[in-house]
Amino acid sequence: EAQVTQNPRYLITVTGKKLTVTCSQNMNHEYMSWYRQDPGLGLRQIYYSMNVEVTDKGDVPEGYKVSRKEKRNFPLILESPSPNQTSLYFCASSLRVTGELFFGEGSRLTVL
Amino acid sequence: QQQVKQSPQSLIVQKGGISIINCAYENTAFDYFPWYQQFPGKGPALLIAIRPDVSEKKEGRFTISFNKSAKQFSLHIMDSQPGDSATYFCAARDFFGNEKLTFGTGTRLTIIP
Predict the structure, then answer these.
(1) Burial class (CB in 10 A: 0-12, 13-18, 19+), A6
(2) What HEC string does A20-71 produce?
């Protein structure tokens, strides 16, 4: 089954404790991206990757890091989480030609 | 800077009625306009999409109307059903801006019996 898998789905952590949200896709997509969803703000892009070893900032990259060492994986790293990073996070991937984004089921992060 | 403006924020429609959600954009480099549907606890999923060379696209009960000169596009859901209750996001892609999809702020649609 074609899918984007994120882990963990739910996480409560404390300020400053480094965490990683993993993302993996099995569709051989070149393009991968991370979004955060907040009430009234919609989906905002954090980082994206056009292919392996190619990453770039989206609209709200502050406080986040990413890497793309393999085509299928695109982890999101919060080096020192803060309460304003409490949000619902989505990983997505697409074939560049079609533009259709396939989303994971989301990771709800709470930073205390 | 919000490049895609979506309205209304929430919408309540009776079963069988027509649901209409509107979006407006400013960037004339946008070349692809999808709508995503999101159910609670799930990620958004592509519902229907249009390219700017056509003014309308219909798939079942869902229609996108596109007005290039006004830089507006809208989603119409005919014969709305309770199963259509979800959050809807419009989006636009800037092909020359690294193919990024910019999303609207979302519309929570509720269909009442």
Answers:
(1) buried
(2) EEEEEECCCCCEEEEEEEECCCEEEEEEEEEECCEEEECCCCCCCEECCCCC
Quick check: helix, strand or coil at residue B93? strand
The 10s digit of each residue's pLDDT in B15-55 is 999 999 999 999 888 889 999 999 999 999 999 999 989 99
Residue A36 has pLDDT above 90, yes or no: yes
B43 vs A104: CB contact, 8 Å cut-off? yes
Determine the 3-state secondary structure of B26 from DSSP.
coil
Peptide bond into B8 cis (omega under 30): yes
Task: Give the closest of B32, B41, B89 to A43, CB-based.
Answer: B89
Strand runs labelled E in B2-61 = 4-7, 10-14, 19-25, 30-38, 45-50, 56-59
CB within 8 Å: B44 and A103 = yes
pLDDT surpassing 80 at residue B2: no
Please list every residue in chain A whose beta carbon sits closer than 8 Å to the beta carbon of residue B103.
Answer: 35, 42-44
Q: Does B29 touch chain A (CB under 8 A)?
A: no
The partner residue sitting opposite A101, judged by closest CB among B9, B42, B101, is B101
Tell me: the pLDDT tens digits for B55-68? 999 999 999 999 99
